[in-house]
Structure formats: structure tokens, C-alpha cells
Write a structure and sequence with these properties.
Elements (H helix, E strand, L loop, with lengths): L4 E7 L13 E6 L2 E6 L4 H13 L4 E7 L19 E3 L3
Antiparallel strand pairs: 1-3, 1-4, 2-3, 4-5
Length: about 90
């Protein structure tokens, strides 16, 4: 299983009390949404983070696999080069 970096967008502005709730993710609040940028996560860790969001009743807007901080594309042994990994829900 490969670890990947993700950007997760949630509805609402998550305050300081959530800074330590999502280990390995940095929170960047903006107008009506908060962006969580993760460190490398495997699938199990990603599902755990998403479960935490659900347990806090935080509405998920999108999950997108992102480039690693050094600018390299993550390894995708099962995906074609043009295949994007994302889940988006906008209202």
C-alpha cells in the first residue's frame, strides 16, 4: 500500500480547537470552508481521517490526491497517467 498526500475540503470554518484533532494534517480556514492538507497517508489512515470528520459531523466537500511537497507526482501503480483520484461534492 502506498502513502499519498491529500487535500480535503470541508464545509465551515474549523477553529483552533481542531488543530490537534487531525494528526498529520494542517488546517487552512477560508471563507465558509476549511482545507486540510495531509502528510503521507495510506488508505487505512485516509479512511480513519474521513471517519473522524464524520464523527464530528463535519460536512465533506471534496477529497483530492495531491502532489507531494517536493513536487513529485505520487506513485500510481494501478492508474494510468491521465487518471485523477478525487471525490468532489459541491452544493
Amino acid at each position: 500500500m502506498y502513502a499519498r498526500h491529500y487535500t480535503i475540503i470541508v464545509r465551515g470554518r474549523l477553529g483552533d480547537r481542531f488543530d490537534n484533532a487531525f494528526l498529520g494534517a494542517s488546517l487552512k480556514p477560508s471563507d465558509g470552508e476549511t482545507r486540510l492538507d495531509t502528510g503521507p497517508l495510506d488508505q487505512s489512515q485516509l479512511h480513519g481521517l474521513l471517519e473522524q470528520l464524520r464523527n464530528f459531523a463535519i460536512e465533506l466537500i471534496s477529497v483530492e490526491e495531491t502532489k507531494e511537497p517536493d513536487g513529485h507526482e505520487p506513485e500510481t501503480p494501478d492508474a494510468t497517467p491521465n487518471e485523477a483520484t478525487s471525490l468532489t461534492r459541491r452544493n
